[in-house]
Specification:
The chain has 19 helices and 25 strands. It is of the alpha/beta class and 538 residues long. It folds into 3 domains: 160 residues, Rossmann fold (3-Layer(aba) Sandwich); 223 residues, ANL, N-terminal domain (Rossmann fold, 3-Layer(aba) Sandwich), CATH 3.40.50.12780; 101 residues, ANL, C-terminal domain (GMP Synthetase, Chain A, domain 3, 2-Layer Sandwich).
Length: 538
């Protein structure tokens, strides 16, 4: 399938400008296998693959998928933990010309059914026994008649095949011979990613091969990476933070190391044991790393930590950098367009962690518009819009949603922010989350940043709550550090002392043991809003 939003002329312009190349991720994997066959490509607790082994293993897996009768541009619905096995599958699907649709591990029947209805998959790859028994029965019924169902666990239901049946046997020579004609080209849509869905069911973003390579190349430069780096994928690859750094594999033959889990002590031990030099993660994991006692761990190998997707707690970033000696690089973007803000590892800390999200990656254009759609000058606050060669090329088979989000090549992010004179972007909040308190606008992110400065606060979320007098007021849900608690009255007094406008101070501050989350580690504010009526005043 060709990109929805890109014309042949637009593709040619990207090629002429050098943003796109004719390379593909599968082709670059083969190049690495030829040029550095013995270098480690990926590793996890289950084993290690060199680039030569990875190329051969993905050839076998790809051919075995072709042998199942899956035609080119078939769709594969994949729900699996990030691992070397996922890296194999991603490359194998590209070689077989099968579009991969990767969804978060947290998704269950409601979200899975939505995506299945939208993409009509021909292949499902997931751990069936990870679902609730009722959902297993639903899945077996919904998946009946598909070309293939691959169970990452131990298959216990008719029609499901074990992973090893596809990944370990020798492949048919005729099926292997089909790979060159089946593999995706640079301008083919080869990937569908799911947005976080914090305001409803996720949108499905289509990604051409060249866009994936383009963003990986830009991130590699911002992180100062070389082929000798060992990259820790400390975030799920179903989300932007994980998969975007994985796309660097098309640029550099680095080593990609996958953890068994995302617990802070486990990640820190892995840094020490595997001599990880760079890593990617999300803000909630960064906050947990910053709260951990780092003394028992040798983190001398870790040079840079990239933190992307949601708003980053700058205080946590500074704390971790000071304690670990590792530079923290803040990045921002969305599934529709990543990298519209990305700091550079070479910038001084005062600039890199100044509260902005840095400059856009090469080729990306930014503007900030007012409510009438007119571009605003530096310093003025409005909606952030972006246009980039590494953006998604629309929503999968959803022309109405695509038209609503993109106009004349510009994607409306829904973020509120401002640009400085140098073009650096500072994000202030989300347009959909703005709280209207009797005409006064409250940006939750501003209030969240002030609350997060409290020493006992691990993370917080500010949402709009209905109010008979003001229409809406702000409520703050606060998750304290383990062993700590937060006094609502004392925190309110502190916000007043810091000069926060009275209408911005939350009407309620509710302590919670843990904030609900969606894919990518983002706080599920929709779930908090839905529970407003049952909250008891502290």
């Amino acid at each position: 399938m060709k990109p929805t939003l890109l014309s042949p002329a637009g593709i040619a312009a990207y090629l002429d400008a050098g943003h796109w190349t004719l390379d593909t991720m599968a082709g670059r994997c083969a190049d690495h296998a030829r040029d550095c066959p013995g270098r480690i490509a990926c590793q996890d607790a289950q084993g290690t693959y060199t680039w030569a082994q990875l190329d051969a293993a993905t050839d076998r897996l790809s051919a075995n998928l072709i042998g199942l009768g899956l035609v080119r541009d078939s769709r594969a619905l994949v729900q699996m933990p990030s691992s070397s096995r996922e890296m194999l599958l991603r490359i194998a699907l590209k070689k077989a010309g099968i579009i991969g649709v990767y969804v978060p591990m947290q998704w269950r029947r409601r979200e899975l059914d939505y995506v299945m209805q939208r993409i009509a998959p021909d292949l499902i790859v997931m751990a069936r026994d990870a679902l609730h028994p009722d959902d297993m029965a639903w899945l077996d019924d919904a998946a009946a008649g598909l070309h293939a169902r691959i169970d990452l666990g131990t298959p216990t239901a008719p029609g499901w095949r074990p992973w090893d049946e596809l990944s370990t046997p020798s492949a048919n020579a005729d099926d292997i011979a089909q790979i060159p004609n089946r593999s995706f080209g640079f301008d083919d849509v080869s990937l569908i990613t799911a947005s976080s869905g914090t305001s409803g069911l996720a949108k499905l973003c289509e990604w051409p091969e060249a866009a994936q390579i383009c963003v990986g190349r830009g991130i590699a430069v911002r992180l100062g990476l070389t082929a000798d780096d060992n990259l820790g994928i400390f975030a799920p690859m179903s989300g932007a933070a994980g998969v975007l750094v994985w796309t660097i594999s098309a640029t550099l033959p680095c080593t990609f190391t996958y953890p068994e889990n995302f617990q802070p002590a486990s990640l820190l031990r892995l840094v020490e044991q595997s001599a990880i030099t760079a890593a990617t993660t999300v803000p909630v994991i960064l906050a947990r790393l910053a709260a951990e006692n780092l003394t028992p761990f040798d983190l001398s190998s870790l040079r840079v930590l990239r933190v992307g997707t949601a708003a980053t707690n700058v205080e946590a970033a500074r704390s971790f950098e000071e304690s670990s000696g590792c530079k923290v690089v803040v990045a921002s973007g969305s599934m529709e367009c990543p990298g519209f803000g990305h700091a550079h590892v070479g910038e001084p800390k005062t600039r890199r962690l100044d509260g902005s999200v840095g400059l856009p990656l090469p080729g990306c254009r930014l503007r900030v518009d007012d409510d009438a759609g007119q571009a605003l000058p530096p310093g003025d606050i409005g909606e952030v819009k972006v246009s980039a060669p590494f953006a998604a090329s629309g929503y999968w088979h959803d022309p109405a949603a695509t038209e609503a989000a993109w106009s004349d090549g510009w994607y409306a992010t829904g973020d509120i922010g401002c640009l400085d004179d140098d073009g650096r972007l500072t994000l202030i909040g989300r347009a959909k989350e703005v709280i209207n308190r009797s005409g006064h606008k409250i940006l939750p992110a501003e209030v969240e940043r002030e609350i997060a400065r409290h020493a006992d606060v691990f993370e917080c979320a500010v949402v709009a709550a209905p109010d008979e007098e003001y229409g809406q007021v702000a409520w703050a849900y606060v998750q304290p550090h383990p062993g700590a608690s937060v006094d609502a009255k004392a925190l309110t007094a502190l916000l007043q002392e810091r000069g926060l406008a009275g209408y911005k101070i939350p009407a309620r501050i509710i302590e919670v043991r843990e904030l609900p989350r969606v894919g990518g580690g983002k706080v599920d504010k929709k779930a908090l809003v839905a529970g407003n009526g049952s909250v008891v005043k502290p």
